[in-house]
Amino acid sequence: MKFGILGPLTMHDNGVSYLPTAPKQRQLLALFLLNANRFVAIDAAVEELWEGNPPRTVIPTLQTYVLQIRRALAASPTLGSLTEAHKSLITGNRGYFLMVPPHSLDLMEWDQLVAEGREAQRRDDDAEMARKFRRALSLWRGPALGDVQAGPLLRAHVNRFEEARLSVTEQCFEAELRLGYHHDILSEIGDVAAQHPLNENLQAMYMLALYRAGRQVRALEVFRHLRRSVADELGVEPSAQLRRLHEAILSADDRLEMTTHDQRFATTSRVSVR
Fold first, then answer.
1. Mean pLDDT in the chain?
2. Whole-angstrom distance, CA of residue 128 vs CA of residue 219
């Protein structure tokens, strides 16, 4: 049985979906998966499903949802019976445990790959860091739990996941720019930068990639657009680091061409152009 939350919610076995169809059951299953192999208290489940306004029959209703999830699990060949489903979705003391084996949930694989990428980052191994982060990012199939109605607990988790996804994306781009892959990732950086127009780090990476690809004029246009945007939205100027990068592009500073193969120089606005 395989589960997925980095995109639409999935639960399948040998390519066949066994996902519950009722919205509340899917919402509860998502909560269990986000806490895979950890205890989920009844109070937490009630807060997620009903946000402080539970029905009078809240406990029997919750138990019915759990039963339906167990039936969906039991329908899969991997489990095959309600007895086995009870071993997978365990009733504890005023709560539940959903036991998920390693490599059965995309979130677990994401966490492992990101941890390996961070370790490569500590070793200054940009090539390995980029490989691990690319594998991690390939697990995403769209917005996390994009087809599940979310209560307060799921919303908090989804926001955290999306922030982590963006952070890993930025650090992957940084490593690839240091490796000299600007032609390969130029279009992708542009797409992500367009989705986050006030993110100075992304705009800086896009400017640098454009410059290295021989598109100095376009790089300067990106800076002018950002300057207008931050002035209109926030009433401030771009950061000093970004302004220094702009000046370096204007003067065609030779150091902007440097990558890891030469020496570590300013690949983004996080590192000042000196």
1. 91
2. 28
Q: Distance between CA 162 and CA 156 in Å, rounded?
A: 10
Annotate 29-67 with DSSP letters as a single string: HHHHHHTTTSEEEHHHHHHHHHTT---TTHHHHHHHHHH
CA distances (Å), origin 48, targets 66, 157, 162, 185:
14, 12, 19, 39
Q: Which residue has the tokens 């029905």?
A: 55
pLDDT in tens, 116-125: 999 999 999 9
- The span from the CA of 120 to the CA of 219, in Å, is 30
User: pLDDT for 170-218, tens place per residue?
Assistant: 999 999 999 999 999 999 999 999 999 999 999 999 999 999 999 999 9
The pTM of the whole model exceeds 0.85: yes
Residue 30 to residues 63, 93, 100, 108, Cα–Cα distance (Å): 16, 20, 13, 14
Both tokens of residue 227?
């300057």
Average pLDDT of the residues in 69-78: 95
* Angle of helix 152-178 versus helix 200-212 axis, rounded to 10: 30
Selected from 1.25.40.10, 1.10.1660.10, 3.90.1150.10, 3.40.50.970, the CATH number assigned to the domain covering 180-274 reads 1.25.40.10
Which of 156, 143, 177 lies closest to 271 in space, CA to CA?
A: 177
How would CATH label the architecture of 7-98? Orthogonal Bundle (1.10)
Cα–Cα dist 38/35, whole Å: 5
